[in-house]
């Protein structure tokens, strides 16, 4: 059975109950595979990036037919705002049907709205939601949804991965999180890749069957990953990296350096570096 996430953020819990560790977050518009209808109110699911957990059935559209139909619709992803209100009508004085985080997916079946008299763009885009409702968002807040790796020259793709990670700058640290409302280390790097159509393992390790492979530190370029015990960061170039850390004083997405001469050098991480991984 397939289900569609119809809540802004759907926590994937490590056990079938709400008061336990959150392993991951599925986002609005994602399709999940049901593995077990474990207990009343909680089902075990698998995301398309092969991560598993237990989700509350509340906030899901539960229907194979709906999931299949949703999969065929053209999509856009919330990318240019940390949060995005889906309004009932195409005007700011309307009311929000739902507020979505960066990374949420909506269906777009109509062209952007235009003024009926002048034909000029209004800045609004009508979108469809998994439960069949329709609403409006600012068209400039949406961008291309990639369900396969974006086709760009290596240099451009590397820069795009870094730019995507930087969209999460100043987000708080949240264990299991992967939105600007709260993100952990592997959530940051995996979402930066996923928003560019590349599925990597969601944890802080190189896993067989995913496209990240080991390289030497001297060969690292922008977009490559730095691995530490239980932690991962994205290399930006010039010895600097971006990561989400629970370290007191940082408490979220921040920038550090591998160079002892840099003011943002973290000696404790450099000495624990266990490996470097690359998609390229």
Helix content: 10-25%
Could you tell me the radius of gyration in angstroms? Answer: 20 Å
| CATH topology-level fold name of the largest domain | endopeptidase fold (from Nostoc punctiforme)
- Strand fraction band? 35-45%
C-alpha geometry? globular
How would you characterize the largest beta sheet?
Answer: 6 strands, antiparallel
Number of helices: 4
Rounded mean pLDDT is 96
Number of strands: 22
Assigned CATH architecture of the largest domain = Alpha-Beta Complex
SS class: mainly beta
Strand order of the largest sheet: 17-22-18-19-20-21
Number of domains: 3
CATH superfamily of the largest domain: endopeptidase domain like (from Nostoc punctiforme)
Report the order of strands and helices: EEEEEEEHEEEEEEEHEEHEEEEEHE
- Cα(first) to Cα(last) distance is 35 Å
Q: What low-confidence regions span 5 or more consecutive residues with pLDDT below 50?
A: none
Task: Describe the structure concisely for a colleague.
Helices cover 13% and strands 36% of the residues.
Write the layout of secondary structure elements.
Blueprint: E1 2-5, E2 9-13, E3 22-27, E4 31-39, E5 42-46, E6 52-56, E7 60-62, H1 64-72, E8 75-78, E9 83-87, E10 96-101, E11 105-107, E12 124-128, E13 134-138, E14 142-144, H2 154-166, E15 178-179, E16 182-183, H3 185-194, E17 213-215, E18 225-228, E19 231-237, E20 240-245, E21 252-257, H4 267-270, E22 275-278
Antiparallel strand pairs: 1-4, 1-7, 2-3, 4-5, 5-6, 8-11, 8-14, 9-10, 12-13, 15-16, 17-22, 18-19, 18-22, 19-20, 20-21
